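Pasting as-is:
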Amino acid sequence: MNSRVAGAMETTRGLVIRIKGGVFVVESGVGEMRCSLRGRFRLGDTPEEVLPVVGDTVTVGIERSGGAGESQGVIVELGARRSILARTDPSQRKGYRILGANMDQAILVFAVKEPDLNLRLLDRMLVSAACGPMDAIVCVNKIDLADARAGIDEALVPYRAMGYRCVCSSARTGEGVEELAGMLTGKLSIFAGPSGSGKSSLISRMQPGLELAVGSVSSRTGKGMHTTSHFEIHPLARGGYLGDTPGVREFGIWGVSKEKLAGFFRDFAPYRAECRFASCTHSHEPDCAVKDAVEDGGVSRERYESYLRILETVPDERGMKRPG
């Protein structure tokens, strides 16, 4: 819907679908617009300057039709965010990096091999999605490379038991592709996962014509090589939007404190209230019901060890600051 600011330019609302080279591409009621920024943006009580990210809703002032490479509008207002997927900033220029905003769900894509399935990384990304907050779907791709399918199904047992939707897929054979595509209909979804896990190949298989760059795995490191260089979202023919993020090799948790971390582990929920101490971190305290559940088989030992590793890396509540 277009409106006119008194004594100023005509405006329209839109969705940031791509950012590249300092240009913000916004999908609006008048089509795609190349936009620049005006002024400083703040969200709620966030004190520092907040720049729009992919998935943000924005108000755009329409400046001119613009020729090739010219700005067609200027972003004058940033809408409130209902969710984010964030990680610590690998460059350490600032504390965190937001991968995408206002997403309904995160599709966490991991390969069976090439690179090998990394459940520790999956656990970290599940915490980040829950903190977002947004739903998460676990996708194990390249299932055609699995030596033993039973082993993959066994690895997914704890995640299915926690209520996570899990899909085994192959962009090469088409297995699971239609099932996954059905989960995306009408949703704003973000694909995230390790480099080389086949995210771009899956997206291209679900919607031919996107022609996303497809990469390979380094023969030297055994890890995926980046092909998607920036995050952008694409409209889906069956409704909704889907974004492909650059692959990750590490994923630092941001926005979660030591005191709150256990709340993002669904499998701990039945036991936490039975701990002796209300402030139990489930690491060193006596009479901890979560630790007892690990010994009794109620909580996966692998999941518990993932929790302990994350616990070592996140700050306590006093040093906590949530990204905007």
